[in-house]
Structures are given as structure tokens and as C-alpha cells.
Specification:
It is a single chain. The chain has about 260 residues and is α+β, with helices and mostly antiparallel strands. About 40% of the residues lie in helices and about 20% in strands. The strands form two sheets. The protein has a five-stranded mixed beta sheet, with no helix packed on it. The chain has a five-stranded antiparallel beta sheet with strand order 2-9-4-7-10. The protein is globular, with a radius of gyration of 19 Å. The mean pLDDT is about 90. GO terms for molecular function: DNA-binding transcription factor activity; sequence-specific DNA binding. Keywords: Activator, DNA-binding, Transcription, Transcription regulation. InterPro entries: AraC-bd, Homeodomain-like_sf, HTH_AraC, HTH_AraC-typ_CS, RmlC-like_jellyroll, RmlC_Cupin_sf, Tscrpt_reg_AraC-type_HTH.
């Protein structure tokens, strides 16, 4: 697949940053491309699956993803999503002397301050110089914030990737291994072997993790845990909470 550079820089070096807001429908994709600037991807609502350097990250509203300049990436929307992208010039990045992780993908928690700084860059209530300071502070926070887990291994084999993508988009969590092998047009044995090779998980374990990542969008919309458990096919809210803790390290309420 060809790779295209995105639009030319949206700002000059004296400004140092720019931002764009995009509304997506579930299932839309942004094909492989790269930017001259560093980029912070944040979904104010919805969930996106981002691919870069052969890895894939699930980004719900509780997370934001840093992409260094010239980093090739693509993403798929797992739900209706309001995306906020903030771009930072190389000169602005260089002002953050302690941003040691600026050259690699970095996922952070969207704490209230980060959320407010991003929102502030999209309104016209502040002077240009003030907003530049806000963008610089946002960069400083990205640089200091610890990385958090957001990676969902996806199959590299095109047949398996198509089957896994259809499962996540359709939310048909009752889909069996037999069904998945049929979608991929291969035997169950081959499907199981290749799936484990590509993801490091059995299909059953991977599907459990995928369900938990799918729940993040529902949690962000304040859907009750009982309804989430029912929608995702868990036997009870307690079973969902236990699975959530096993994958995310904390309960749905704590998240």
C-alpha cells in the first residue's frame, strides 16, 4: 500500500503548533501516511485503532497517543469518533529539553489538565501567544507522563486481520473459532496456529482482551457496568469487572 505525506505544515515556526477536529463514522479508515510535525491523537469520544511501526494501539477517550514527526501510521475507527489532533513543529518540540520520548510512540492518560489544554487550543478565547504557551505546556506534560498500556496485538496475516477487524467492528462477541476460521477461509487448526503466532495469544484470550478494549468506549459514555457486561456477552457484571481488572490492572470504576 502506498504511503502519502499529509498536508504541508499547518503553522509556521513562530506559531509552533496547530490543531484539527475531525468527525468519523464507525468503520472509517485513514490509510498509511505521515506528518512533518509531531502529532498528538485524542478522541474526545469514540475509540480508534492506530497502527505504527508494526504495532497497534487502541485509543479510547481516556488515552492520547503521541506520534513523532515523520512516523508512518494509519488508523481505523472502532466507533463513531470525534478526533482531536494537535500538531507540533520540530522547533517547538526542541524547546522541551526533557522530552526524552519525543522520537517514539507514547501513550498517556488524559488527566483533566491534558483534556482542558487540548480543549483550550480549539477555542478562540485566548491570545495567540497564550495558546502557544498552552501547546508548549501540553508537550511538557506528554514528555513527563508515564507510558500506559493500550496495545492490542492484531494479526499480521491479511486473512486473520480481516476476520479480527470484522469481529471488532460488528461486536459479534459470540463468534466462535469455527466462525472466524470460516471468515478467514482456512481450517480451524491453521487459524489457531497462525493467530497465536501473530498475536502471542490464543483466539479465546485475544477475544477477551478485545472485548475489554471495546468496553472503553461504553465506559467513556457512562453506560452502566451491568449494561456493558450484557452488551459484550459477559455472564454477569462481576465477570466483566474481573476480566477488566485482569487486562487493565484496575476496575471499570477506577478506570
Amino acid at each position: 500500500m502506498s504511503v502519502s505525506i499529509d498536508k504541508a505544515p499547518r503553522h509556521d515556526d513562530s506559531t509552533g503548533w496547530s490543531a484539527t477536529a475531525i468527525s468519523y463514522r464507525r468503520g472509517e479508515e485513514d490509510p498509511p501516511h505521515y506528518h512533518l510535525e509531531g502529532q498528538l491523537l485524542y478522541a474526545s469520544s469514540g475509540v480508534l485503532l492506530v497502527e505504527a511501526v508494526g504495532r497497534r494501539w487502541v485509543i479510547p477517550p481516556q488515552r492520547a497517543l503521541w506520534l513523532p514527526p515523520l512516523m508512518e501510521h494509519s488508523y481505523r475507527l472502532l466507533s463513531r469518533t470525534e478526533l482531536r489532533a494537535v500538531y507540533f513543529s520540530g522547533s517547538l518540540i526542541s524547546e522541551c529539553a526533557h522530552f526524552a520520548k519525543n522520537d517514539r510512540v507514547h501513550v498517556i492518560d488524559v488527566v483533566p489538565l491534558v483534556k482542558e489544554l487540548i480543549a483550550g487550543l480549539f477555542i478562540n478565547d485566548y491570545h495567540t501567544l497564550t495558546k502557544r504557551k498552552m501547546a508548549l505546556l501540553l508537550l511538557e506534560i506528554i514528555g513527563e507522563a508515564p507510558s500506559v498500556p493500550a496495545e492490542l496485538p492484531m494479526p499480521q496475516d491479511d486473512r486473520l486481520l480481516r476476520a479480527a477487524g470484522e469481529l471488532m467492528l460488528s461486536h459479534r462477541w459470540e463468534t466462535s473459532l469455527t466462525d472466524m476460521a470460516d471468515i478467514a477461509n482456512m481450517s480451524e487448526r491453521s487459524f489457531s496456529r497462525l493467530f497465536s503466532r501473530d498475536t502471542g495469544f490464543s483466539f479465546r484470550t485475544w477475544k477477551q482482551r478485545a472485548r475489554i478494549y471495546a468496553s472503553l468506549d461504553l465506559l467513556s459514555e457512562n453506560v452502566p457496568v451491568k449494561q456493558i457486561a450484557w452488551r459484550l456477552g459477559f455472564s454477569s457484571p462481576a465477570a466483566f469487572s474481573a476480566a477488566f481488572r485482569a487486562v487493565m490492572g484496575l476496575t471499570p470504576g477506577e478506570f
